[in-house]
Amino acid sequence: MSAPTPAPTGTTGPPGPAASDTPDAPRAALEGLRSEIAKAVVGQDPAVTGLVVALLCRGHVLLEGVPGVAKTLLVRALAASLELDTKRVQFTPDLMPSDVTGSLVYDARTTEFSFQPGPVFTNLLLADEINRTPPKTQSSLLEAMEERQVTVDGTPRPLPDPFLVAATQNPVEYEGTYPLPEAQLDRFLLKLIVPLPTRDDEVAVLTRHAGGFDPRDLKAAGVRPVAGPADLEAARTAVAATAVAPEIAGYIVDICRATRDSPSVSLGVSPRGATALLATARAWSWLAGRDYVTPDDVKALALPTLRHRIQLRPEAQMEGVTPDSVITAVLAQVPVPR
Q: 263: how many CB neighbours lie within 10 A of its CB?
């Protein structure tokens, strides 16, 4: 299950700093992303909302779906709608860490080494099929994701702000892949499932292509910036001011602790996962037009925030238990604060 989509509470706002003139303008501008991205991507509203939540929380997203469900197009359309820079890296078994982070290059003219930035120096990095590269290269993203900097030859180099890693992986084909270790999975704020489209959506996709739609030319599709970095920064400030009652904080902790006590789980949600759920619930609440977090906000983001932080016992996997089913059971058992 992917993150649901909150009900719209405003209209598309103008791009750039002018969208921050009123308190509700940043929310309206970010809500306009869904209709703008829909010009290029049919359906997938929950994934769009998940990416916006991650941007608001300064987090990263793991997108899981079979090839051909517009994961790459989704990230490109989001970047175009926000007027952000984006780069794509196809992860392969022979990819080296320096191919991602950059390296020192010798300049014969100056007889000195200069730093050549890698594709990680961008706003939205699409790490395509991240589980196809060995752990050494996967780990090259850890510092970038956690510290938002890259250290080469002992010199730290800050990454742009905003910075988001959207990594994809194929849930079907596992031959020749390197599963992400738990420590790196925990660095992703959300794991979003990108499903196959419904029949109506698939017909709409074919109709667009028959009409001349080119996924490589978003400008021709009419995708334009409807929000900018100023809107995003104002939205982040508003999200940080969203109130969290002590009862809600306790509810989040009880949910995470209950996953650790599940007989099907060998590794439950860590305290980092609890803070992640607090952050995503806050962003969700703000997008829905509230200045306080409710238990329903926590429930709405529990699956995408926690599903990749749970490690099942082998016998539970053989019985068909999934992280989603564990979280769903926990949500049904943990008392909801009144």
A: 9
